[in-house]
Amino acid sequence: MIAALVAPSTSSALWYLARGSGLVLLGLLTANLALGVAIQGGWSPPAWPRFVIQTVHRNVALLAVILLAIHVVTIELDPFVGVGWWAVLVPFVSPYRPLWVGLGTLSLDLLAAVVVTSLLRRHLRPNWWRAVHWLAYLSWPVALLHSIGAGTDTHVGAIFVYELVCLGAVVAAVVVRLTRARRLSPLSRRAGLAAVAALPVAVLIWSATGPLQRGWALKAGTPTSVLSSGSGSGASPPGAPGAAYAQAPFTTSFLGSIRTGQSGAQSTLTIRGQAPAGSGASLVVTLVGQLQEAGGIAVSSGTAVYTPANSTAAYQGPIVSLDGSVVQMELRGLATSSVRATLVIQQGASATQVSGEFYFGTAVGPDR
């Protein structure tokens, strides 16, 4: 893969840890909710005493709290976006995807209320404790919406399937609970089953028309300071001399080739191709660094040149970030301010062929 050809010069460890802990946390919350529904319904495996199920339920909840702390801390320490510590406590004040991050904060607040009241259970009336404990059930759908809406890798098939499995597990547990609830009238039971069955359909429709669509990052409320390079739009002034300039931002496909060479102690890796493929627009990325014994190049510098279709005037500039197969560059054209561009590469049909996406006027990451 391309990631093996170049040694990343930057690290996304915090981001991956934050997202990974969030996904595991969603799984733990799902298991905890399903166990809670089962306990309330009087269910337990024949070979397991009821207190064992309750102990597992409490331990899963404790592990979820630990993962929640890791998730929050790594999100705050990650420099890519500024969520802000205040947004950890107050929902919907984050400058980054305020609604979807705010749902995560709301879920956190609900879980915190459950944890605190559980610690003080001996000092509370049973009815009060039970009322607050029901908030745990509300925190789960809020966390699911947060995961799908704020998660920048929702479009990855395996991630979305995982989230659907969590949804399916809870739906199945609630369906079993409703079918065994003797105190419910037939009408109430049918209404509950219909509502539960409608939930996966609603989530699928919303995901297909929202988080799974291109451009969701902007619609979700990602600041333009994260999506773009800032003041430079990349478009030429009206009537500017020279050939046509590309309008920014835009996203297009990329098709090209990759080759390596060596000059003295320095090795070079050149990515050359067309963007959009077949249009005549060209892109050349040159990376320079030390050849590694394990394979790949530890990049120390790099340059990029992008020439729009039907144009002799090129955008060119340095490589500013390299993270695996994601190359970010700062380009400048005639009579324009600097424009941030990103090339996200996938392996092609052979070791020397590549494809991917070219983002002009935006700065993106593989999972952001």
Give an account of the 3D structure.
By secondary structure, this protein is of the alpha+beta class. It has two domains: about 10-220; about 230-360, Lipocalin (Beta Barrel), CATH 2.40.128. It contains ten helices and nine strands. The chain has helices at about 15-40, 50-75, 85-90, 100-120, 125-135, 135-150, 155-180, 185-210, 215-220, 225; strands at about 5, 250-265, 265-275, 280-290, 295-305, 315-325, 325-330, 340-345, 355-360. The chain has an eight-stranded antiparallel barrel. Strand 6 (about 315-325) and strand 7 (about 325-330) form a beta hairpin. Helix 1 packs antiparallel against helix 2 (about 50-75). The protein is elongated and about 75 Å long.
- C-alpha Rg (nearest Å): 26 Å
Q: What pattern of helices and strands is seen along the backbone?
A: EHHHHHHHHHHEEEEEEEE
What would the principal axes of the Cα set say about the shape? elongated
Structural class comes to: alpha+beta
Strand order of the largest sheet: 2-3-4-5-6-7-8-9
Count of separate structural domains: 2
Largest sheet: 8 strands, antiparallel, barrel
**Secondary structure: number of strands:** 9
Report helical residue fraction. Answer: 40-55%
> What's the end-to-end separation, in Å?
20 Å
Q: How much of the sequence is in beta strands?
A: 15-25%
| Average predicted local confidence, pLDDT | 78
Report low-confidence residues grouped into runs of 5 or more: 1-11, 227-247, 363-368
User: Count of helical segments?
Assistant: 10
